[in-house]
Design brief:
about 250 residues; alpha/beta; TIM Barrel; nine-stranded parallel sheet; 10 helices; about 35% helix; about 15% strand
């Protein structure tokens, strides 16, 4: 799987480049100061619409024109992977389907964007998205906003049962939003996942034992390497519905 480390890194350019070199990054639209560095030194990068930050702040994004233009600026870069399609995290399915329709009016190459299925939405919508898009992002929301709780895992089990075949393989690529914890992604058949763990925890000095790496780049790298030592599951090991996406 691909481990996307969220930016901005909140460090000097030297530290940003030192940390991101050879890695994969997620660059948010509303905090895109590390975009050029990511494009220069990363193996690949994806871009985020900023809906989660807006949701947390209580100031939802009302116009996406700026995001569409920004995506166009980066879409042809060789290291660009995909953009997360605009979404309303606690919105209705109709609101999010309307945003998908708006995205299609701006972008004809479907592989450029990935829609978000929010875990409070219906399983039927997830099945539809997986049948129409090459990659779907899984977002924790509503009563399932806290990643890794018992309720979250039960809901994730329902989702995997609906979109995995007899062998536990999902019918499209899956990206886990805020799921870059080995305790989570090692149990799921994800093609990729992201989080800001490396950046957020690089200042938690208790995480480094008796030796404290002297630079921000080194501290972020230590956390990232611990994460990157693990891979996602090859298949979902829970129960699956063999009638869905049956190719035979």
């Amino acid at each position: 799987m691909i481990h996307y480390h969220g930016t901005p890194c909140g460090a000097t350019r030297q530290d940003v480049v030192g940390f991101l070199a050879g890695r994969h990054a997620l660059v948010p639209w509303i905090r895109s100061e590390d975009a050029s560095a990511a494009a220069e030194v990363c193996q690949s990068f994806c871009v985020d619409n900023g809906a989660f930050t807006a949701w947390k702040s209580g100031h939802p994004i009302e116009s996406w024109g700026g995001y569409y233009r920004w995506v166009w600026e980066w879409a042809l870069h060789p290291a660009f992977d995909f953009a997360i399609i605009p979404d309303v995290i606690d919105g209705t399915e109709q609101q999010n389907d309307e945003l998908l329709a708006e995205w299609r009016r701006h972008f004809h190459r479907q592989e450029l964007g990935s829609p978000v299925w929010h875990m409070h939405e219906s399983i039927e919508r997830l099945v539809t998205l997986c049948s129409q898009w090459p990659r779907v992002c899984l977002g924790s929301s509503g009563q399932y906003a806290s990643v890794g709780t018992d309720g979250w895992w039960r809901r994730m089990g329902e989702a995997m049962a609906a979109i995995c075949d007899r062998e536990g393989r999902p019918r499209c690529k899956l990206h886990g939003l805020r799921m870059l914890s080995p305790d989570v992604f090692s149990r799921l058949p994800l093609a990729s996942a992201d989080s800001t763990n490396a950046v957020r925890n690089s200042s938690s000095y208790s995480r480094f034992g008796s030796y404290l790496p002297p630079t921000a780049a080194q501290r972020m790298a230590v956390i990232a390497e611990r994460i990157e030592a693990h891979q996602s599951a090859a298949a979902w090991n829970g129960e699956v519905n063999p009638t869905l996406f049956d190719l035979e």
